[in-house]
Amino acid sequence: MNPAAPDTAVLFDTSSDGAIDILKKSIDTRLTDLVSSQQHKYGPYSSPPSSAPVAAHDIFLSAAGSQAAASSHGGKRLRALLMLSLCGCLGLPDTRRQQALDLACAIEVFQTAALIHDDIIDDSDTRRGSPSAHKALSYALESRRPGINSASAGTGMAIMLGDILATDSVAIAHRSGLAFSNSQEITAAFLDMHHRVETGQIMDLSMGSLDLTDPDSIETGALETYLWKTASYTAYAPIQLAFLACAFDAEISARMAHTVGKPLGLAFQLNDDLIDVTSRTSGKPLGGDILEGKRTVLLSDALRLSDTSDRRTLINIYSQNRRSRDDIPAVCRIFESSGAIERSRERISRLFTEASSALEDGLSALYIPDSRISAVVHVMGLFV
Question: Membrane-spanning regions, if any (predicted)?
Fold first, then answer.
């Protein structure tokens, strides 16, 4: 175990909104540099001859490289902020600042890869208010290579781009992790994060087969999926990697990641489900989860709490092979009138309190100053 450093100037200050904005800009700048540094991987191994086939290679590779940069822009950088806030809280030495920043950015690169694949699976047209990667690549290829099946090629390229970025994230994490004495544990934790998210994606795909007349099974399945697909890299991994980077042993790192990351990650996903049906400023079309027929905790609560007529309406809509935008207002109304939205807000509040208390108790036991703990809680508040 590594006791906290003296309460001098803290690296990665997150004690105020202004400090968080400054740190986020540092993350954005470094992330852009890291993604750009991988651009050579989107080119041929040798100088290409002027033949048509290789010229086509250049067009496709250039489009992939441009999209890698575009898909990396935007986002709240919550995962990197959480990890770096904890690193500062735990007394990370200045000599490890750059490596910790790169490790946090590796999580964000993986996030980009995961979202590219997620948008393909969900057939989402937009991401953060812009065309999703597979759609953007389809548009780019259509203008550059008329006559090809641009939709198919764009989707195929996006699949491979997601794979490339996932690989890049591991390379960045491994390279930055070499600066730490427990580099093998850091790399292993990062790879475990990959495995959990990928397993969670499979679990998410299976959710569509759950019986709509059994809301308890939907709730149980959804929460389990949230833990694997979302909480694992949104909260668990950033916390675990922060503790490992600050030389805490693997047992303490995993325990803090579990006790804090599980409720925080669940609160984040439940809030994301709420945003899908209540917010018009999220960069995603309202009701995307409804269109996809996702079995969410919000849906399970609505099925459980609604009256017979509304429950029948929900079952009829979610039983269809495809839903339309005309279905969204009716579902949102039932979510609100049944009390499901209010119940989700109560769950989120309860889970956030659990996460905050676990963090405060765990860090206080390590003799971390209250001011440092408060800075981490401040970042956690951005998750909900």
Answer: none
Instruction: Supply the pLDDT for residue 261.
Output: 98
Instruction: Give me the helices (H) in the chain, please.
Output: 17-37, 52-72, 78-89, 97-122, 133-144, 150-177, 183-206, 215-226, 237-245, 250-278, 288-292, 297-305, 308-319, 328-337, 340-365, 370-380
Measure the CA–CA gap between 288 and 276, rounded to whole angstroms. Answer: 6
Structure tokens at 329: 């207002």
- Per residue in 82-129, pLDDT (tens digit) is 999 999 999 999 999 999 999 999 999 999 999 999 989 988 887 877
Q: Which domains does the chain have, with CATH numbers?
A: 14-40+56-179 (1.10.600.10), 183-383 (1.10.600.10)
Q: Determine how many CB atoms are found less than 10 A away from the CB of residue 357.
A: 14
Rounded to two decimals, what is the model's pTM?
0.91
Q: Which pLDDT does position 23 carry in this prediction?
A: 97
Paired tokens of 118? 């997620």
Tell me which residues of the chain have a pLDDT lower than 50.
1-8, 45, 49
pLDDT at 150: 78
> Distance between CA 92 and CA 104 in Å, rounded?
13
- The first and second tokens of residue 266, run together, are 């669940």
Angle, vertex CA 320, rays to CA 316 and CA 326, nearest 5: 80
Start-to-end Cα distance in the chain: 31
> Which residue do the tokens 């979302």 mark?
230
